[in-house]
């Protein structure tokens, strides 16, 4: 790792008095930690600062991360549309929506935000923070199908069995591919569960995998999210020019109504490689839904819009 950092500094940074900012999530903050340690060892004048940005919302010590609000807004919107569409059918139907989240269920939990005066919200929500039991799942679905014609379920891609295996690992031809950080590729959870339901009860269950749409749908951004992304970057610059290094900008929530947050630089050593998960008290005891406390936490983050500039009927993007 030492040689890698030396090469990074030699090839990427010209003025050794400049601050260096890294925008990202857990893996990015791990890099900032390593770079700042190396900088301390070599008495480097470079100041290394982390700027939080991840849709996963799983960075420790910060109330939330820019990126999450927009992804949550997209998920809640799509979930609402799926629920409304499912209700038009005059026959039994079920939709299982697979949402990103390896070990933390923040994104899947945001599906509950679809609930409102004009939408009942998802019927069930399963997060990786709670052990998933297939027999219990089937029993719950069996009870629901006797009461409702249309059922919509949100599941995290990373839900796990009691023995620690991901549900998607039960797929016989599941790929063993791992990314550059050594993470096993996940996917197929909704398809596996929909097939299981079809085999058990004899009616079609549709699998929907949102996949990368959750993180690239810029037409659905939250204005709060955009504003806070600028705030985080600006405060990182301020902190660096004050001489701070080895820090990440965190958000501290002051009030929910009205929604207010402050920011502060925080020791990267207490953030890197630590995964923040949805508090268990925000998940129902049977693990099938999330509490009103989660909704109060997440709803301010999806507020307001920034309408895209439309060109020839489509959103226009910046390009060079």
Protein described:
With about 325 residues, this protein is α/β, with parallel strands linked by helices. It has two domains: about 1-65 and about 220-275, Rossmann fold (3-Layer(aba) Sandwich); about 70-220, Rossmann fold (3-Layer(aba) Sandwich). About 35% of the residues lie in helices and about 20% in strands. The protein has nine helices and ten strands. The chain has helices at about 1-10, 25-40, 70-85, 105-110, 135-145, 190-200, 215, 225-240, 290-300; strands at about 20-25, 45-50, 95-100, 125, 150-155, 205-210, 245-255, 260-265, 310, 315. A four-stranded mixed β-sheet has the order 1-2-7-8, with helices on both faces. A four-stranded parallel β-sheet has the order 4-5-3-6, with helices on both faces. A two-stranded antiparallel ribbon has the order 9-10. Helix 5 (about 135-145) links the parallel strand 4 (about 125) and strand 5. The chain is globular. Mean pLDDT is about 90; it is low at about 10-15.
């Amino acid at each position: 790792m030492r040689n890698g950092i030396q090469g990074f500094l030699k090839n990427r940074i010209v003025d050794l008095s400049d601050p260096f900012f890294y925008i990202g999530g857990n893996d990015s903050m791990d890099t900032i930690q390593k770079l700042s340690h190396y900088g301390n060892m070599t008495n480097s004048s470079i100041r290394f600062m982390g700027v939080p940005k991840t849709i996963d919302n799983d960075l420790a010590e910060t109330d939330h991360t820019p990126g999450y609000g927009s992804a949550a807004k997209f998920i809640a919107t799509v979930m609402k549309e799926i629920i409304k569409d499912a209700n038009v059918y005059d026959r039994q139907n079920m939709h299982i929506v697979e949402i990103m989240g390896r070990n933390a269920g923040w994104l899947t939990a945001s599906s509950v935000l679809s609930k409102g005066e004009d939408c009942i919200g998802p019927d069930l929500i399963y997060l990786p923070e709670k052990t998933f039991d297939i027999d219990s799942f089937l029993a719950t679905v069996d009870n629901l199908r006797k009461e409702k014609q249309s059922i919509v379920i949100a599941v995290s891609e990373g839900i796990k069995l009691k023995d620690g295996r991901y549900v998607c690992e039960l797929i016989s031809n599941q790929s063993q591919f791992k990314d550059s950080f050594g993470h096993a590729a996940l996917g197929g959870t909704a398809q596996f569960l929909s097939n299981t339901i079809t085999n058990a009860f004899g009616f079609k269950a549709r699998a929907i995998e949102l996949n990368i749409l959750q993180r690239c749908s810029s037409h659905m951004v939250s204005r709060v999210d955009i504003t806070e992304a600028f705030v985080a970057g600006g405060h990182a610059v301020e902190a660096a020019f004050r001489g701070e290094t080895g820090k990440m900008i965190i958000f501290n929530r002051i009030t929910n109504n009205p929604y207010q947050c402050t920011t502060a630089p925080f020791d990267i050593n207490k953030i890197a490689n630590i995964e923040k998960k949805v508090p268990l008290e925000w998940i129902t005891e049977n693990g099938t839904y999330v509490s009103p406390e989660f909704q109060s936490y997440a709803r301010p983050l999806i507020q307001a819009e920034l309408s895209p500039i439309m060109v020839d009927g489509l959103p226009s993007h910046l390009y060079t």
